TrEMBL record:
Name used for this protein in its record: histidine kinase
Keywords: ATP-binding, Kinase, Membrane, Nucleotide-binding, Phosphoprotein, Transferase, Transmembrane, Transmembrane helix, Two-component regulatory system
Range covered out of full length: 136 to 398 of 398
Entry GO CC: plasma membrane
Organism: Sphingomonas tagetis
GO molecular function, one term: phosphorelay sensor kinase activity
GO biological process, one term: cellular response to phosphate starvation
Length: 263
């Protein structure tokens, strides 16, 4: 009856005269979906509980060290960092559920992707000024994309932000926009870094999957960025490809449908 990853439901009905009908149903799909849901809730709770436990611990310690202003300032600072981590995680969880809720509504803004990429670069530059001058945008004259502007901005934030976070300091982050055949626009974001080993590549868009958890957390990552990107690409009927060469760097390529000429 197939491999161990398969789940079958068996029902047996006895007929008069001793005969039996055996009814087998393949439940592999719904079983896997249940697992993913249960794992997701467990992971999300764990990710929220860790900073919360740390905040609660610091509150207790502060209550004991009531009149030392230096300790106060230091602990408040750590509590702020942990609270912001929770905030980023909650924002990303809400984004995921919003994108999923809109899954069946076709996006219909006409979006100038090159202008949006420049806006996102400026926003990211404000947060990571040390990497700002490394982001280079190369955009040929492009037709607009048919999409959801808010979601495409988030998509750009996540992949350009990752290239800035995980790329080597001082090396370029190359954002390239080109019309490809078949009425699609090709967006690629390439960084120079130690790259990602091939066994990780197929799992990067899973929720909370990280190659190096402590590095992701230190860089302020939630582990949800690429899961969000994948959902946005799916809603836009686009394609996502992540390629990486160990020792050289990573390139994320996304194809999005161009808006019809009449728009
Ligand atoms: P995170 O919030 O941890 O960055 P993502 O979902 O955006 O989560 O990415 C998942 C993981 O993929 C990251 O933790 C990191 O290990 C890896 N990753 C993503 N983008 C890059 C990149 N440009 N270079 C190297 N590793 C990357």
């Amino acid at each position: 009856l197939g491999s161990r990853d398969q789940h079958w439901e068996m029902r047996v009905r006895s007929l008069p005269g001793g005969q039996r009908i055996v009814h087998l149903s393949d439940r592999t799909g719904s079983h896997a979906a249940d697992r993913i849901r249960v794992d997701f809730v467990a992971n999300a709770s764990h990710e929220l509980r860790t900073p919360l436990a740390s905040i609660l611990g610091f509150i207790e310690t502060l209550e004991d060290a009531a009149d030392d202003p230096e300790t106060h300032a230091r602990f408040l600072n750590v509590m702020g960092t942990e609270a912001r981590r929770m905030q980023r995680l909650i924002d990303d969880l809400m984004s995921l559920s919003r994108i999923e809720a809109e899954k069946y509504r076709a996006p219909d803004d006409s979006v100038d992707l090159a202008a949006l990429a420049r806006e996102v670069r400026d926003e990211l530059a404000a947060v990571a000024p040390e990497r700002a001058s490394d982001v280079v945008i190369d955009a040929a004259a492009l037709p607009p994309v048919r999409g959801d502007k808010v979601q495409l901005s988030q998509l750009l934030h996540n992949i350009v932000g990752n290239a800035m976070k995980y790329g080597r300091a001082g090396t370029p982050v190359a954002v390239t926009l080109k019309a490809s055949g078949d009425s699609m626009i090709r967006l690629s974001v390439a960084d120079e870094s130690e790259g990602i080993a091939p066994e990780h590549l197929p799992r990067l868009t899973e929720r909370f999957y990280r190659v190096d958890s402590s590095r992701s957390r230190a860089a302020g990552g939630t582990g949800l960025g690429l899961a969000i990107v994948k959902h946005i690409v799916e809603r836009h009927r686009g394609r996502l490809d992540i390629g990486s060469v160990v020792g050289k760097g990573t390139t994320v390529t996304i194809f999005l449908p161009a808006a019809p000429a009449s728009q």
